[in-house]
Amino acid sequence: MNNTLRLSLIPALLCLHAAAFAQTQDTNTVPSVVVTGEAPDQSRKDLEAEQARTPGAVTLLDRDQIAQRNVSTTADMLRFVPGVWSASSSGSDATFLSIRGSNLDAVDYDNSGVKLLQDGLPVTAADGNNHNRFVDPLSARHIVIARGANALTYGASTLGGAIDLISPTGLDSAPLEVSVNAGSFGQRQARVTAAGASGNVDGLLSLEAKDRDGYRGHNNQQRRAAYANGGWKLSDSVRTRFYLDYVKNDEELPGVLTRDEWRRDPRQAQAAAAAGHYQWNVETARVANKTTWDIDADSSVSIGFSYETQQLYHPIVQSPFFSLLIDTEQRNAGVSLRYQQRRGAHELLAGLNYGRTEVEGANYGNDGGRRTALATLVDNDAHATEAFLMDRWQFAPGWTAVYGAQAVSSTRQIRNVTVATGALRDPAADFDSINPRAGLIYQLAPQAEVFANVSRLYEAPTTYQMDDQEAGNNQTLDAMKGVSFEVGSRGRQALGRGHWHWEAALYYARIRDEILSVDDPTAPGTSLSANVGKTIHAGVEALAGASLPLGESGAHRIEPLLNLTLNHFRFDGDRRWGDKRLPAAPRYALRAEALYRNSSGFFAGPTLDVVGKRYADFANSYEIPSYTLWGLRAGYTTKAWEVYAEARNLADKDFIARHSVTAASSPNAAILSPGEPRSVYVGARMRF
């Protein structure tokens, strides 16, 4: 798609909805749904109002909620988010992430399928990959998880949706906060945050250090980070904020085991990983700005910019047949524009995202973590433009129609030169699509609603997937596309002298040309990618919790919380695989806890994880067994300080956290990453 056509998409979409704004009705307040938390701050209220105006599954988290337990990975952060399957292979930052069956194409590789953002600005590369890093969960004040097509308001064109981590500022933080954490397998983590405001200016600075020896051999991690932002209120209607981040994360990778090796000693490292000193070392620097202008009481516009560099040093394969060490620099640039206007019963949201990612460097041979012969020169380029327009129309008391469309135009270009022969491999392709969406919300009660939507799904391949194309020539992959249907409900209601809250969704998606990858048997550690004909992604997502007083005084209460996900991901009449299940995602996953809380601040209770069976291959011949884990957590919290202790896997059960994916796994395949054995963590947070 040429530049003229790209720019024409915006007025074309505006014209589609112009008629809706010709009719002006009396202004109605869109009700908000408060799902969790007490006395939320203004930013939380704004997020809850946005959630209530979305006809689909969106979950909100606060740092204060998740910081009362050990949160050292993205998987820990997402523990109580339905529809998500996330696990770390060794307790370190290298985490597998799948939402609604995304990223089942390349487990343990580029983590595509979910768009990550900080403060509404992209962290995910323009081609859709999250290979180099995740965002530190404890660096966020609020976290929004919009699943599947419900991420339209973020401009995300992904199967899994979007996760936006919103930074704390000098306006909503204590002047000084200190957090410490320590526990099993040599985990040590400390963070200090200073914040303040004066007149129209505020600022915040966080410094963090994390070290972990790990529960497996060759499993050490060391992370150092600094996060800063500063805001300036230029006038009553204009405000701007700058963000600066620096993260240096070095991890040893323990590799994968065979089933016999796992049973014999689940804490051992893969022999090749130790000998090849497999690592995932990333140094990141990021600068961003976001400026908002409140034009009047009913309209506003915001514009944001971000630029990030990521230096990757990644020894990943060493064998008698093939070795690989990736040494590249990735540069991400992004621009985001949002315009909102309320007119009568209509609320218009228009947006434009543009991102570009460049990757330059080389692939080398690997000898114990050291570069050897230069093998391939790498020069990849990706562009992505996402324009969207949405109208929220409260057309009758209690009823809101939400409809709109997204236009996507992106390019992928790869230039790999084999040094030994001078051969150039340069697949390139453009991907363009219009993705409509329509939904309804019905307000059952002031804090309860039901919703439904039908949406088009679309996701272009990453450059990693393009480079791994199964044919191995300049052929390219097709984009994944499909249609999803979703119904659900969320809310909060009184229950006697207490209350309960819930969110639930049922979705069904038919997808064509899904990109699925398997380990290359001739070069372990690399992948082969291809489009398959038809697949089905369907499931049930439910989160329910309550606060139930004990006795008349109100000083004691029980707070149960349950997160249940049921997955149905399968091929649909595939020529080779028929109707077999897709690998990697379990059939069901249940996370639960039941805490006793006292008005003094003390809390304690058991935790439970029940995870169903899953397959490691398309042939459904290698089954990963189900498992059940018990834990316990307790703590004490006040306005000025809090402490906690958490015990995991009290029965010390051996289980598989992650695994590689193959076409048809042999019984002795080395594909397993063991889960965390019995462990204990303690932490404290103090505010001054």
UniProtKB/TrEMBL annotation:
Keywords: Cell outer membrane, Ion transport, Iron, Iron transport, Membrane, Receptor, Signal, TonB box, Transmembrane, Transmembrane beta strand, Transport. It is found in: Cell outer membrane. Residues 1-22 form the signal peptide. It is a multi-pass membrane protein. It comes from the Bacteria. Residues 221-650 form the TonB-dependent receptor-like beta-barrel domain. InterPro entries: Beta-barrel_TonB, Beta-barrel_TonB_sf, Plug_dom, Plug_dom_sf, TonB-dep_rcpt-like. Residues 51-162 form the TonB-dependent receptor plug domain. Belongs to the TonB-dependent receptor family. This is TonB-dependent receptor. It comes from Massilia phyllostachyos.
